[in-house]
Amino acid sequence: MKKKVLLLVLSAVFTFSAIADEGMWIPMLIGKNIPEMQRMGFKLTAEDLYSVNHSSLKDAIVQFGRGCTGELISDQGLLITNHHCGFSSIQSHSTVDNNLLANGFWAKSHADELPNPGLTVRFLVRMDDVTDKVLKNVTTTMTELERAKAIGQVADSLIELAEKEGVGYEAIIRPFYYGNQYFIFVYQVFEDVRLVGAPPETIGKFGGDTDNWVWPRHTGDFSMFRIYADKNNNPAPYSPDNVPYKPKRFLKISTKGIKEGDFTLVYGFPGRTKQYITSHEVNLIINQINPNNIALRDIRLSIFDSFMSKNDTIAIKYASKHARVANAWKKWIGETMGLKRLNAVSKKQELESMFAAWASSKPELNERYGWLLPKFEQLYSELAPLSLIANYRYEAVYGVELIGFASRFEKLINLVLDPKADKDKLEAQKQALIGYSRRFFKDFELAVDREVFAAMMQAYSERVPEQLQPQFLLKVKEQNGNWRQLASQIYSQTAFADSVRVITLLSGIDSITVKEFVNDPVFGIYLDFEDFYRQNIRDRYYEISDSLNVLYRYYVEGLMRMQPDKRFFPDANSTLRIAYGKVGGFAPRDGVVYNYYTTIDGVYEKAQQRNVPDYVAPERLIEFYKKKDFGPYAENGTVPVAFIASNHTTGGNSGSPVLDAEGNLIGVNFDRCWESTMSDVMFDPNYCRNITLDIRYALFIIDKFAGAKNLVDEMEIIN
């Protein structure tokens, strides 16, 4: 009788948790969700979303750069993504005399569009479940190393075959549910992507760090690019002879507007979630990882701010760096608050108690799953101090730009000192470093990094137990512990701070000149930290991480068996996913209720706060506002700017199209509410909201503010 009661409780708990708005679903398998989606208002079919037999909405979606999404909005390869996704490209074309970040940029013709070396977009051609093929040689008696080798051999052959299917094809095989399932993803990659348009950052970044991750929001977070191809419409390196790409599908744009309760769908490349981690890791995130990371980034941001506020050149150089550092910093703060508010550790422990009871209900289950939770506890206890050093290594040591720069020279140094080294590899590594060095020094400021160095070394010395510190820190502490004095001394001596010296040495590097790098104080500091990490932390850290992945493979398998009626979605892993929900506001705190949309009225109101630098708006925009000159993009006498909905999103969804029930583009996803940032670990329908730029605001900026009607004319707009 007790077992029946247990199973009834489990059914009740997990039927409730499988809420409609939660989940990042695999496009190929979306048919299982279509009945629910249609009950919520969706008007299309699974084939409309994903098909390999004819063009579908997935053919209008691209993975933009390394960590964003973009979507095609014309038959001439025009795409839209977020301003923050295009930020580094916009910055790369900016100078003090021609500051595209500050002034914006709008190409009046194809000839005016700006190339971006290194920027690529990837279209998903197809995906397939290859679990049976990948696991065909795996046996229950294999070690994990043998298992990985068997999987890798099959995966390599499948990838090789897939990449021969078309021009510019790349393939990857990704594990799902910690290796319980495998999918192959075949992409076509385009490498000629040109900047077409971007509003000034007083629009594209309006609200800045003040509003980052929060609602209400008034940011015109979009930029525009164009994909170019060769004359056969195939991927090709940049060439003046390339022509705009002709897509299989592009999105129609709806300016009909949205209302509360409307169905919405987000189609993009979410980066990473961890929905199935145990209470042990959630506890580590809340009480160790996030607090330490936040504290270290507090220091770096304070230093950046002090320099950027006094020097326009530094402000441009460090604009992108500041945004990257601040983005995760604020996210971690919100995530920690959200997990605490949800009592996430307790909820995970409740699930684990149910799992333990279920596993002990039958001998077969106990043998396969009964050992998991005690093993989780043991491994996470051992992982905690190792994780501390791994975090400080990344945030404090590599938070110093010059140390990160010096670390890139280790491979070349080893090749130069190895008499048996392949000369072609050595030359290739040398040329790669010369190119990287030129890019590095373009946005490097010695005075800023010197301050960061002093602060990070002091923080590491004061906050990490001495037994976990390398000799370099201990020696400095034994002497006088004057970190600023040390920084001044080192930065005046190092070759790595001198662009001419570095590139000159690289150009003529040999077994004699390489010693200048080997004996450099910054390289010595890098090696001291790195040697300590490699000798004392790395191997065991990765052993535990690998062991945890194995445990999670069994744990998730067990959860699926325990809850056979629940629909499980796989954690995000930068592959194409569908999330769906409804437009709606929420109540984040007692007495506070948020509306589901914002308008240009809020831009004007914020701009009146003269003491907030992030709330500076262009005078031209204010003029349009005062005249109420909004063109066809107004609703009720104003222009909608942004709206929120209950779609499950994460990093990588930046720039994703937000579609209506008919599959038309109504907005561009660009953020989550601060109260939502814990959704990477635990989703809460009462708080989790994605923030979307209303496409009407983007059109208003392009057409009225920028006068770039040539771009609007390319689009197919449904009024």
Automatic annotation (TrEMBL):
The keyword Protease applies. Pfam families: Peptidase_S46. The keyword Membrane does not apply. Coiled coil: none annotated. It comes from the Bacteria. Keywords: Aminopeptidase, Hydrolase, Protease, Serine protease, Signal. One of its GO terms (molecular function) is serine-type aminopeptidase activity. Residues 1-20 form the signal peptide. It is an enzyme of class 3 (hydrolase). Its EC number is 3.4.14.-. GO terms for biological process: peptide catabolic process; proteolysis. PANTHER family: PERIPLASMIC PEPTIDASE SUBFAMILY S1B (PTHR38469:SF1). Belongs to the peptidase S46 family. Catalyzes the removal of dipeptides from the N-terminus of oligopeptides. This is Dipeptidyl-peptidase. It comes from Tenuifilum thalassicum.
